[in-house]
Design brief:
The structure is a single chain. The strands form two sheets. A seven-stranded mixed beta sheet has the order 3-2-1-4-5-10-11, with helices on both faces. Helix 1 packs parallel to helix 9, helix 5 (about 145-165) crosses helix 6 and helix 6 (about 180-190) packs parallel to helix 10. Helix content is about 40%, strand content about 20%. It contains ten helices and eleven strands. With about 325 residues, the protein is of the alpha/beta class. It has two domains: about 5-140 and about 260-305, Rossmann fold (3-Layer(aba) Sandwich); about 145-260, Rossmann fold. It is elongated and about 70 Å long. It has helices spanning about 20-30, 45-50, 80-95, 105-120, 145-165, 180-190, 200-215, 230-240, 265-280, 315-325, and strands at about 5-10, 35-40, 50-55, 100-105, 125, 165-170, 190-195, 220-225, 250, 290-295, 295-300.
Length: about 325
């Protein structure tokens, strides 16, 4: 095995449940092999600002069940600049850090890959985003918890919707990706779903709303935030122009989707990913992303980790519309 003295771990981009479980796994796996661990504060910003904290076995106790990230996270425009990346590298050298583990999304991986090539710094990427929109893995940390949060919220909204015979437009996150919306709609029994990746025929949607109102029945419509339609408020305004909003209400779930204690699946996969990151570094490997392929933990070149343009499981859309009574 390769001799590594110290590693650094950071979380970047949007927070996702399971990041803390991954930090814990990285830290304890490294310590098990006699490697020192530094946590980087607030993502790539901490690399540039020289904000590190030493992580011990006890520092990561009782964090596995917590949402968010104890290290903090942020996006960092400065890391796009070569002189700022050089500052980051010098800060790592001062602490004798030999490798970097980045927990985040495709944008974080792009920056990490460039950094690795520029300074010959071993880098391993771990996919952490609720959107599950990274190519090269079937699963990203936080996706399962976010889905559970959304489905539970829709269940509560449906109670009110059915009591008042209303149509609810429920907006979910996704960062211009419809993957969360599609899966949540299928699992919650929604009557319709809108995704940024599709050009929707709103006239057909209007007819579905008319039938629901005429039948005096409730409906749940899941709408992904994004450029194609805009979101639930924009759909509401469209329906308002057609005088179809008397029984229609809007609920934007917002950041509650990404919070809370991680699910079993997020905890387990985050733990497996963190341990595997240390194994790969000790094997002298770099520029890899860890993920799930065919139900097993696997690694691929980090360059493959681009944003998915078409959601997986598009057959769910046919299922949703087949099961809708309107």
């Amino acid at each position: 095995m390769l001799k590594i003295q110290n590693i650094a771990v950071l979380t970047s981009g949007g927070d996702s449940p399971g990041m803390n479980a991954c930090i814990r796994s990285v830290t304890r796996s490294a310590i098990y092999h006699g490697i020192g661990v530094y946590g980087v504060v607030d993502g790539f910003n901490g690399l540039i600002k020289n904000e590190f904290k030493s992580l011990t076995y006890h520092d990561v106790s009782n964090i596995l069940q917590r949402g968010g990230t104890i290290l903090g996270t942020a996006r960092c425009k400065e890391f796009h600049e070569s002189d700022q990346r050089e500052i980051a590298f010098e800060n790592l050298k001062k602490l004798n850090i030999d490798a970097l583990i980045v927990i985040g999304g495709d944008g974080s991986f792009k920056g990490a890959s460039i950094f690795s090539k520029e300074f010959n710094m071993p880098v391993i990427g771990i996919p952490g985003t609720i959107d599950n929109d990274i190519n090269g893995t079937d699963y990203t940390i936080g996706f399962d918890t976010a889905l559970n949060n959304i489905v539970q919220a829709i269940d509560k909204i449906r109670d009110t919707a059915s009591s008042h015979h209303r149509v609810f437009l429920v907006e979910v996150m996704g960062n211009n990706s419809g993957i969360l919306a599609l899966n949540a709609a299928a699992a919650s029994g929604a009557e319709e779903v809108f995704m940024p990746e599709r050009q929707e025929d709103l006239s057909l949607f209007e007819e579905k709303i008319r039938r629901a109102i005429a039948a005096n029945k409730s409906s749940i419509i899941v709408i992904a935030e994004g450029d194609q339609i805009g979101g639930a408020k924009e759909v509401f305004e469209h329906l308002k122009e057609k005088q179809l909003t008397e029984k229609v209400r809007v609920s934007v779930l917002g950041h509650m989707q990404r919070g809370g204690s991680p699910s079993f699946k997020d905890r387990l996969n985050a733990t497996l990913f963190g341990e595997q990151a240390i194994v790969l570094l000790l094997q002298g490997k770099s520029n890899l992303m860890i993920g799930i392929a065919n139900g097993k933990v696997a690694s691929q070149n980090i360059a493959i980790a681009e944003k998915i343009t078409t959601p997986k499981n598009m057959d769910y859309l046919k299922l949703i519309r087949k099961l809708s009574i309107y």
